[in-house]
Amino acid sequence: MPSSSQAHADHIGSLLRPQYLLDAREKKSLSASELKELENKAIDGAIELQRSIGYQSFTDGEYRRHMFYDGFFDNLNGMEEVAKPPRAIFKEYVPDLQAFLAQGIEPAGTCLCTGKISHKGNSKYVQEFNYIKGKLGDGEKVKMTLAAPEWFHLRHGEHAYSKSVYASNAEYFADIAAAYRYELSLLYDAGCRNVQIDDPLLAYFCAQSMLDGMAAVGESAEKLLDEYIKLYQDCLKDRKPDMTVGLHICRGNFRKSIHFSEGGYEHIAKKVFKEIPADVFYLEYDTPRAGTFEPLADVPKDRKVVLGLVTSKFAEPMEDLEELKAKVMDAARIMAKGSGESEQDALKRISVSPQCGFGSHEEGNAIDEAGMKKKLELVMELAKSVW
């Protein structure tokens, strides 16, 4: 029987893909059904890994995806994939674009709105969910990871949609939100009760480089953040009360463990923690670039926090358990100070995890499978030692 402490251990979602799956995709010699069978085999292994360590909430490792944000925008009418987009349609102040351009790497393919947006009706996320659900036993639950609704807008701004289709951000966001609500309804009807939206873009509003870049071209970061918060509110306004919504805010996790931004949550805490109607905030706290725990004082009393204290980027050095425990207690102290509750009650609202996934991009982080397992085990050990 799982202990209550195990419920305080979580992970972000993506896991390292097995090499045989990566090889099969690269060779492109398998039929769709043959590739699906390989994916099923890999997912079965991922589920068993999570089960063996003691996790109670399961993902499929995102093994059917190339990137963590796949599955939503590529399933909408009105969105068109652009293989070789011109550099002029990108907002070069966005931290990941800055990093690529500084290395002489041109922006990769993207997705632009060329027609009125609507959901296609069949959900790729539901297909992923149904397979995992069929593999779980009593007491085991699925967590589905979803794309952030503003993903392509921040990258492209006014170029994200055709002006012949939408006259304003508000019109564009309204249809994105409607499609997102429909997606959530399909997942709910399939039995999904736990979703996690992965959004590194909100953390970009903590990066001074982007704030300066926007100011330099006469754009208001505060106004845009407000628009995104309104978009989230509209996306989530019809979700059922027994569907848990998590929001993961990290600083980028590209292949080979590259991150893209730095800056503490104090830039966004008062607005994001209080105005986006998420139940759980998954926050990156594995390095000093994430700042201090002080912004946690702004987390409302009815919201939970998952502290990403263990890095998923590198196997070594391994974090010290006692230092991790001290960090958890420090976070509880600050949350209690902000909410007026006891530190013990604040501690009940905290869980722990790696700071991000292990394979946000299919090539994965600069860590091997043994290192990944040790990190996941450390998270579980931390949860059991605190709770």
Structural features:
41% helix; 387 residues; 13 helices; six-stranded parallel beta sheet; TIM Barrel; alpha/beta; 10 strands; globular; two-stranded parallel ribbon
Overall description:
One of its GO terms (biological process) is methionine biosynthetic process. It comes from Arthrobotrys oligospora (strain ATCC 24927 / CBS 115.81 / DSM 1491). It is built from 13 helices and ten strands. Helix 10 links the parallel strand 7 (244-249) and strand 8 (280-284). With 387 residues, it is an alpha/beta fold.
**How does CATH name the architecture?**
Alpha-Beta Barrel
Please work out how many helical segments DSSP would assign. Answer: 13
- The figure for the number of domains is 1
Helix content: 40-55%
Strand order of the largest sheet: 5-6-7-8-9-10
Query: What is the beta-strand fraction?
Result: 5-15%
Structural class: alpha/beta
Based on CA atoms alone, the radius of gyration comes out at 20 Å
Roughly how many Å apart are the termini? Answer: 16 Å
CATH class descriptor: Alpha Beta
Overall geometric form: globular
- CATH third-level topology: TIM Barrel
Report the mean per-residue pLDDT as an integer. Answer: 94
Q: How many beta-strand segments?
A: 10
Low-confidence stretches: none
What order do the SSEs take from the amino end to the carboxyl end, as H and E?
Answer: HHEEHEHEEHHEHHHEHEEHHEH
Please specify the SSE layout and strand pairing.
Elements: H1 19-27, H2 32-53, E1 57-58, E2 76-82, H3 95-102, E3 110-119, H4 124-133, E4 141-142, E5 144-147, H5 151-156, H6 169-190, E6 194-198, H7 200-204, H8 208-216, H9 221-236, E7 244-249, H10 269-275, E8 280-284, E9 304-310, H11 321-339, H12 343-348, E10 350-354, H13 369-386
Parallel strand pairs: 1-4, 5-6, 6-7, 7-8, 8-9, 9-10
Antiparallel strand pairs: 2-3
